[in-house]
Amino acid sequence: MIPGLHTKTTQAAIFTVLVSLCGASFGTAHAEDKPGFFKKLFGAGKEEAPPAPESKAAPEPKPAPKPVPAKKPAVAKKSTPKPSTETGKAPRVIITKTKPGSGTKKVEPGKSSTSPTTAKTTSKPAPAIPPAQPPKDVTSTAKRGEGEFKPDDDGQPSTLRSEAVAVLPANGGWEIVKIGGRDYVTADSVRNFYNPLYGFTTFRLQGNHFWLGSSKLILKAQVGSQEILINNIKFILSFPVQSHNGKVLFSRLDLCKLIDPVLCPSHIQNAEYFDTVVIDAGHGGHDGGSRGIYGYEKDFALKMAMSVRTALMQRGFKVILTRANDTFLTLGGRVAIANQTPKSIFISLHFNSGGSAASGIETWALTPQSAAATITRGGGYNVNGVTGNKQDSANIALATAVHANVISRFKFVDRGIKRAQWSVLTGCKRPGILFEGGFVSNAKECLLVASDAYRQQVSAAIGDAVMNYRKALETAMAKR
Fold it and tell me: Are 305 and 349 in contact (CB under 8 A)?
């Protein structure tokens, strides 16, 4: 459990989202190779007990601080979400369709357009896929390095940066729908752009349920929900999936800050080589963290940190511990250690607390700018951005590597990869995540957490995940 609100997924075989599906040269086994993978993903598998609502979580030891000025990005602030554009009437919908070699076309419902409905291009068409909703005015044969959108240093694709118009290079196209002042990208566009990498054969909307899939990747979403499954790993989007005129829409921010870096981590623009991992054992000293039936969170976190340290060193990494004994260390002090350690990444280890039935694993990455935290106590709306947002793409890639590897190896409830402005993440200048390794408030799960065997197995999974993360980003690192 995270102290106060100060602004605070055998080896490589199951690293299903980041590496095995992104054209990496080394061999990996896909998650779909697991028995029952497709059945489970498409709703016919064994159902897991749903995680307990966040509202049942035990109160934090410290109250949430008041908002602070934007000039202090390292300190999380709990701000109020931007006011909605809805004022009792349906939000205005504007569709922007980009065409290769031409300008853009905006279409408002109820207004006609004299522009042709089929884009002309001299590039070779993408492989035909029998979709439920064939794309219109979008022809994409984009390949990485040839007309793709490339994230700038902040992870925001430059060709999708304009608030009013989005234009891709001549051999690619995106259909943008603006709803209530926010940009959304059609699933057709997503399918077309990533098709050269994945060869999609499934594209279906049935009721509110959407599937996009191939032998390499399956993405499942539900209109109106912020949950999305990518190869059976749960992610929490910043904004709910929308639909308009029979088309599924993902927010542009989620495309830039989650979908693209997860599907193609080798193209993260600001990735830097690392050989060191800073491991932060949560709590310590007078701050015991959550109290479980078999002990305190601070002790479990320290033991886990020691175990992860061993696993990483066995894999050739240097390791720095923020604390090596039962001492108290400020949150700012933990961040300072990470920032002062060159060629490093940061992993903060914690254990959760909630109702006695709450269980599962969850991993946290920093909330992107212009989005809200997954839970109320997670820092609210990130209005102005913070220091850690410079690593947004690397943050979500690291979170995916660790979370997917742990979840795929153990039969835990997948509580998802979530967003928050935890203080150990907001001011971190290195790629960083916060990992919750189970609920000490759950008797059965706490018994596992107190087990050396459990901690060693989870630590091995984390060690493999860090190796996979670095392997996935090798190309991106080489560019720098």
Answer: yes
Alpha helices in 93-170 (DSSP H): none
Q: Is 183 helix (H, G, I), strand (E, B) or coil?
A: strand
| Tally of CB atoms within 10 A around 320 | 17
Q: Is residue 375 part of a domain?
A: yes
Q: Does residue 389 lie in a domain region?
A: yes
For 44-69, write each residue's pLDDT tens digit. Answer: 333 334 334 333 334 444 444 444 44
Question: Can you tell me whether residue 195 is helix, strand or coil?
Answer: helix
Q: 404-434 pLDDT, tens per residue?
A: 999 999 889 999 999 999 999 999 999 999 9
Question: Can you give the residue range of the structural domain that contains 55?
Answer: 31-81+269-479
* Cα 108 to Cα 133, 160, 177, distances in angstroms: 20, 20, 10
Dump strand ranges (E) for 46-114: 93-98, 104-107
Q: For residues 51 and 104, which has the higher predicted lDDT (pLDDT)?
A: 104
Q: Which two tokens stand for residue 211?
A: 């599937």
Instruction: List the beta bridge partners of residue 347.
Output: 279, 433
CATH number at residue 292: 3.40.630.40
Q: Which two tokens stand for residue 119?
A: 């884009």
- Which token pair is 264? 């193609």
**Has residue 350 been placed in a domain?**
yes
Are the C-beta atoms of 242 and 28 separated by less than 8 Å?
A: no
Residue 478 confidence class, pLDDT cut points 50, 70, 90: confident
Q: In this structure, are strands 242-244 and 247-251 parallel, antiparallel, or unpaired?
A: antiparallel
Secondary structure (DSSP) of 343-363: SEEEEEEEEE--STT---EEE
Q: Could you give the C-alpha distances from 170 to 11, 104, 151, 157, in angstroms and in order?
A: 41, 12, 18, 16
- Taking 3-state DSSP, the helix, strand and coil percentages for the chain, each rounded to the nearest 5, stand at 30, 20, 50
- The model's pTM is 0.71
What is the torsional sign of CA 86, 373, 249, 137?
positive
Q: What is the distance between the alpha carbons of residues 232 and 31, in angstroms, rounded to a whole number?
A: 8
How far apart are the C-alpha atoms of 145 and 334, rounded to whole Å?
38
How, if at all, do strands 247-251 and 182-186 pair? antiparallel
Contacts of 281 (CB under 8 A, 6+ apart): 298, 301, 302, 304, 305, 321, 322, 323, 349
Main-chain phi, psi angles of 173, to 5 degrees:
-155, 145
Task: Determine contact, residues 398/352, Cβ cutoff 8 Å.
Answer: no
Q: Tally the domains of the chain.
A: 1
Give the three-state DSSP class for 416. strand
Which residues are within 8 A (CB) of 329 and not within 5 positions of it... i.e. 6 or more apart?
284, 285, 322, 323
Rounded to 5 degrees, what are φ and ψ at 261? -65, -25
Q: Is residue 310 part of a domain?
A: yes
